[in-house]
């Protein structure tokens, strides 16, 4: 899993798109969810980079 962020979007590369729950992401504050190939773009605004850091820590702990 690869996680990246820009000013407004959290971008996550996923292996199984079926596991992506766009509605749940929106319930957690995403203003929108865009799927491009195997990459999910969740629009969280200025929170995106902080969320990226949390996900990086989460995935690092799982290794």
TrEMBL record:
One cellular component term (GO) for this entry is: plasma membrane
Q: Which InterPro entries match?
A: Glu_permease_IIB, PTS_Glucose_EIICBA, PTS_IIB_1
Keywords linked to the UniProt accession? Phosphotransferase system, Sugar transport, Transferase, Transport
| Superkingdom | Bacteria
Limits of the PTS EIIB type-1 domain? 1-63
Q: Which Gene Ontology terms cover its molecular function? A: protein-N(PI)-phosphohistidine-sugar phosphotransferase activity; protein-phosphocysteine-glucose phosphotransferase system transporter activity
- Residues the record marks as active site: 6
Instruction: Give GO terms for biological process.
Output: D-glucose transmembrane transport; phosphoenolpyruvate-dependent sugar phosphotransferase system
The keyword Transferase is annotated on this UniProt entry: yes
Protein's recorded name: PTS EIIB type-1 domain-containing protein
Q: Which organism is it from?
A: Klebsiella pneumoniae
């Amino acid at each position: 899993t690869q996680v990246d962020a820009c000013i407004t979007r959290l971008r996550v590369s996923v292996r199984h798109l079926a596991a992506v729950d766009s509605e749940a992401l929106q319930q957690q504050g995403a203003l929108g969810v865009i799927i491009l190939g195997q990459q999910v773009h969740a629009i969280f605004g200025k929170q995106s980079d902080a969320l990226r850091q949390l996900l990086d820590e989460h995935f690092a702990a799982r290794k």
